[in-house]
Amino acid sequence: MSWEVVIGLEIHVQLNTASKLFSGSKLSTGAEPNTQASLVDLGMPGTLPVVNREAVRKAALFGLAINADICRHSVFERKNYFYPDLPKGYQTTQLDKPVVGAGEVEISLENGAKKTVRIHHAHLEEDAGKSLHEDFHGMTGIDLNRAGTPLIEVVTEPDMSNAEEAVAFARKLHAIVTSIGICDGDMSQGNMRFDVNVSIRKPGDPLGTRTETKNLNSFRFMERAIKLEVERQIDVLEDGGSIVQETRLYNGDTHTARSMRSKEDANDYRYFPCPDLLPVEITDADLDALKAAMPELPDTRKSRFLADYQLSEYDADLLSGDLATAVFFEAATKAGGDAKLAANWVMGELAAKLNAEEKSIANSPVTAEQLGQLIARLKDGTISSKIAKQVFEACWAGEGDPDTVIEAKGLKQMSDSGELEKIVDDIIANNGPQVEDYRSSDDAKKKKKIGFFVGQAMKVTQGKANPQQLNQLLKEKLG
Amino acid sequence: MHTKTLTELKTGLANGDFSSRELTEHFLARIKQHDGELNSFITVTEAQALAQADAADQAIAAGQGGLLTGLPIAHKDIFCTEGVRTSCGSKMLDTFIAPYTATVVEKMASEGAVMLGKTNMDEFAMGSSNETSYYGPVKNPWDLERVPGGSSGGAAACLGARLAPAATGTDTGGSIRQPAALNNITGLKPTYGRVSRWGMIAFASSLDQAGPMGQSAEDCALMLQAMAGHDHRDSTSLNEKVDDYLGALKDDINGLTIGIPEEFFPDTLDGAIADNSREAIRELKKLGARVVSVSLPSIKLSVPAYYVIAPAEASSNLSRFDGVRFGHRCDDPQDLEDLYKRSRSEGFGDEVKRRILVGTYALSAGYYDAYYRRAQQVRRLIRDDFARAFEKVDVLMGPTAPETAFKLGAKKDDPVSMYMADVFTIGVNLAGLPALSMPTGFINGLPTGTQVIGNYFREGQILNVAHKYQQATDWHRQLPAFGGEQ
After folding, report:
1. Complex ipTM
2. Calpha distance A246→A243 (Å, rounded)
3. B202, A45: Cβ pair inside 8 Å?
4. A389: domain range?
5. Which CATH architecture fits B6-252+463-477?
6. A250 and A387 inside one domain
7. pTM for the whole thing?
8. Are residues A66 and A120 in the same domain?
9. Active-site annotation holds for B76
10. Contact at CB, A89 and B316, closer than 8 angstroms
11. How far is A75 from chain B (nearest CA, A)?
């Protein structure tokens, strides 16, 4: 009998507020260590936290986006433990009264089916600093720039039954938080980090013992870590062993995981309401204002793409699933005047190139406007699709807009029939044997053999001959 | 000059009877002369004080004085003061130079106050006798073999001996009022949230409140006027308008209703203590107040509830002292755990460790409901008791402390009996109410105090009551022999 996999996720989503959750320090990446850390972030004696209302607003907006109950008096608690990158000796987080209560997110499975993943809750909390274990001569450096960065931790019910569903959920969550503008969604900067809870059981059995694999920072690592853990659990159980409840660490480079600590070693965090902070009030007026300003959600966007651009279900899914992609696609469509071409280019050439160079679409060297111009030139016959790829490469390399590139490189399609006619005449005159051979062939063979002349013409024109026109001319002249 | 109240000194400065420099030098000299015996200061900031005094003299000459311009004030060493050691009475912070200044200190400085120095205190404000200070116990100026009370014992003693004309204190369970009573001074714990906690090193965040300690209610009113107000850096600081406390002193107390909680006069109470407070209430009756009996049935649970809540919060608040970023760090740590264990074992004294242990226990999984949650429920009952009483009365009165100053070392090994020193004051902190202690006579040459408890944000009213009493009596003007002119 096969095993049933049960997966629940905890996702840390970094909010893109201007300042930290409890201090006025700026959020920044790449700053010199400890230059974005105020007295509050350092946990200086006598300092006190003040809640960043913008972070609360963004958390509530997320709650509304997933149809969750919003707690009107959410409470911050202290989670007490010692760690050098935790300056106060406690993390300020939420436990009993999180700002976002139960909600749900619908995901599309590969077979086209839909599935609802229930959200248990989402709470606001501050991030810790970073321990730097290198370059300090056997000591550990502490960088508190990240300390106090606002996060929402989204906790799902154990509703996913394989790694693909978990990834689909994670991508959907990414789409939601970027669409509503609460998170930059840059995985490489740790904007989203996943903890996966995995257990297996025989169908019909109660839930098995779960393990938690922490701090996965890409969809791919998450998928691979889940698969690895499922295999491990199956091996253990089928060998007659039992699963130990533990926290595990996955190493993406070696594709291995190890136990970090077992349940017995778990801290008693001694949660209690933070006496320095009052309950966070969210009023009806706050919620009304948030609802009124709610940006377009991925599902709504997908419906719109289907209706407005006549995209296929598959294309609409892919293009609406990520805000940056959706924005890029719409801008390219607007500039190029052809949604289908824009969709093909964004998902084809552009995606491949971005992937190969590990760039995000937001940092694409070819802008949406440039891609739109390229599409427009394709559509009006200025260039062929073959030349278009060449132009795209040139734009990618920073050689300018498509029009500039076409002009500079003389890539304009040769559509002047007089000029083309002369070239065709020359080719026929200079290739007697091939002309003879062609003319004596039957229609089926002619179709193949015309390719030689097309090739010759393209060679001469450096690919700029309009293919339809060329074919037409050749057929006429060769007879 | 040191026999004058802060208010009188303010008038003297305004009249040009003396300069702020003269005044400041006078008190600095008294500290030099007498504090060797008293030990009420941890740090004396002489150079800074004289510079502030000179600036104040210029301001006065230019007619630009603030509320406290040129007046010397001693700050409890729990308030962060930029560039000056802020020890909180602990070895943990013996070398800690605060990188910023507490709101209370800043506000008083902006009104022109001159900081004389930082006063001794129980370590991290945990104690009722000032014996837990890393810097040694403070002596009571009325009897050098006795304690000054705590935790603001240095503030109360230096003020009692007139080594400073006024001082700041903090009160988590009675730390302003109990030492005020034991040193024959007047001390006010404001409503929780009235005075900013920014820069005040936290003991128990939901209870801590800074307040003025002075020679009279009038002095306290003057100081509170400068200290009170909303601070955007403290989320628990309330955005309520600051009353005119000096103006309120003039109000008539005819028709005022004083409630006497029977629980503040238990059968077990020292009769002489009870008599002094009853006598003070009779005095106010003569001034037109009406007296009724009330009951606060849950108040008997205040000490046990407090000794769960305060240590629980403290255990978390003191976690930041880990030897990593500031404060004491042990020599040559072998690893992270060794760094934590030795830095904290060496840096904290016994009472602080005791409370960290108690608090950690109270918050532990499996005990939280039985202790912390229960204590919070008791806290609500106590608050409700006070609320019911204030439906019928304007103020509540009773003894501040159950006994006069006890001998140094008398309770050192008996923490529970030490904790009972705050039996009458703790309920007020749990409820968040304002309360004042004023001198109301002596027993065997040792001062006693009576507490006046008001409703939320009625600091003006309790100051008014105390001021009227002090206009009619002179207990608050009695000075100890210590520090007198020889």
Report:
1. 0.96
2. 9
3. yes
4. 296-409
5. Alpha-Beta Complex (3.90)
6. no
7. 0.90
8. yes
9. yes
10. yes
11. 13
